[in-house]
Design goal:
This protein is mainly α. It has one domain: ADP-ribosylglycohydrolase fold, CATH 1.10.4080.10. It is 60% helix and 0% strand. It is built from 18 helices and no strands. The radius of gyration is 21 Å and the shape is globular.
Length: 387
């Protein structure tokens, strides 16, 4: 009898704990999750911008030792994550402020401004042509001091944009953009689409696929699946598991069943877990494995952020700030990887996962430099979200 009572007690305690976890998850409002996704992406962009393509990257103890990272090591790693000023002059695809202050964003977030301009200026009509027109109109939306920077940034994008708009002067077919390389460009503007219809990840996939005229080849599927995963993360039970599962299973164009061809997205998702397993808890090993197995040339191919984000999160047991810090220490296209990581973390955990001062710093810099920030975006999402 005593044994039975003990078993019932343990079962009841486990049930209560599981319910408490569910309640805790559900207490995160959709509004907090959406804001967490948006500001998390901007924070990642701003944090990664100053160290983008810096070689060699600055690495801490746990990224250089031959030891497995410990629980305390993960916590210590997270404490290193911070915003910092830019040690470099203006660059067209990076920051548009010379030696910009901490919290300054790059093109990953500027591209999102174009998406929100489309929502605002075309009254919710998110179509390929309206988005393309907004890309060209962005120059006039900018403060005058940034228009020369825009002119240096736009040429390659403009060729494809003009083509989509039916022009044939200063235009080339979209398939030749970036020399035919399937890039992560669609991951820059389209992550917020997840917030417009989070209860319907398939709709988010299809809308991203429709708008992403500069995504070619397998990038169309990879970048659209990422947004579908984010939509699933915004739901009350959003988690890393649900995020990845949605990426694998939301497949309206049946990429999973192409004759004789494996879906490349699945290959890269599987690789992220295999590399973590091979690294066996050692971050330095993981970095070497990433360098040797990503089969990348330019570090901004579409699959690279997916593998880097998933593997860096998993090896630190999904600790949010430690995962962000690992992006900084891995290097290469850090702002683009971190803006994806920040979006996923914010969607799962809500805005409070980010330090209030950090949120304010990025918001203030966006407003001061470009006249819009996350508060403005939240207003547009509330107005145009499908309910």
């Amino acid at each position: 009898m005593r044994t039975l009572i003990i078993i019932l007690f343990l079962f009841t305690s486990q049930f209560i704990q599981s319910q408490e976890k569910k309640v805790t998850t559900n207490l995160i409002s959709l509004s907090s999750k959406i804001e967490g996704m948006l500001i998390g992406s901007a924070i990642g962009d701003a944090a990664g911008g100053p160290v983008e393509f810096v070689s060699p990257p600055t690495r801490s103890f746990w990224s250089t030792t031959n030891k497995k990272i410990t629980k305390k090591g993960i916590e210590d790693l997270g404490k290193l994550f911070k915003l910092q000023p830019y040690p470099k002059d203006v660059e067209p695809f990076a920051q548009w402020e010379s030696f910009g202050p901490a919290g300054t964003i790059t093109d990953d977030t500027r591209f999102k401004m174009i998406l929100f301009n489309t929502l605002k200026n075309f009254d919710r009509e998110l179509t390929e042509k309206n988005f393309a027109q907004s890309v060209l109109d962005f120059r006039n939306e900018l403060p005058e001091k940034y228009r020369d920077n825009y002119d240096e940034w736009i040429p390659e994008i403009e060729y494809a944009t003009n083509w989509v708009l039916g022009k044939r002067e200063n235009a080339f077919p979209v398939e030749r953009i970036w020399g035919g390389i399937p890039t992560m460009e669609g991951q820059m503007p389209f992550l917020p689409i997840a917030a417009l219809n989070p209860q319907n990840p398939e709709w988010c996939y299809l809308k991203t696929y429709e708008l992403g005229y500069f995504d070619i080849g397998i990038a169309k599927d990879i970048n659209s699946a990422l947004v579908a995963g984010l939509a699933r993360s915004l739901q009350p039970d959003g988690s890393w598991e649900n995020f990845e599962n949605a990426m694998r299973t939301v497949d309206p164009y049946n990429y999973n069943n192409v004759l004789y061809v494996d879906r490349q997205l699945i290959r890269w998702l599987d690789l992220s877990h295999n590399l973590v397993k091979q690294a066996d808890g050692n971050i330095a090993n993981l970095f070497v494995l990433l360098e040797n197995n990503l089969q990348t040339i330019y570090w901004w191919e579409a699959w690279v952020p997916i593998v880097v984000v998933l593997s860096c999160a998993e090896i630190v047991d999904y600790n949010p700030l430690a995962a962000m810090q690992l992006i900084m220490e891995f290097g290469h296209d850090t702002d683009s990887y971190a803006q994806v990581m920040g979006a996923v973390l914010g969607a799962i955990h809500g805005k409070e996962i980010w330090d209030k001062a950090m949120r304010q710093t990025v918001n203030n810099q966006m407003k001061e430099q470009f006249g819009q920030n996350i508060d403005d975006w939240m207003t547009l999402i509330e107005k145009y979200r499908i309910k």
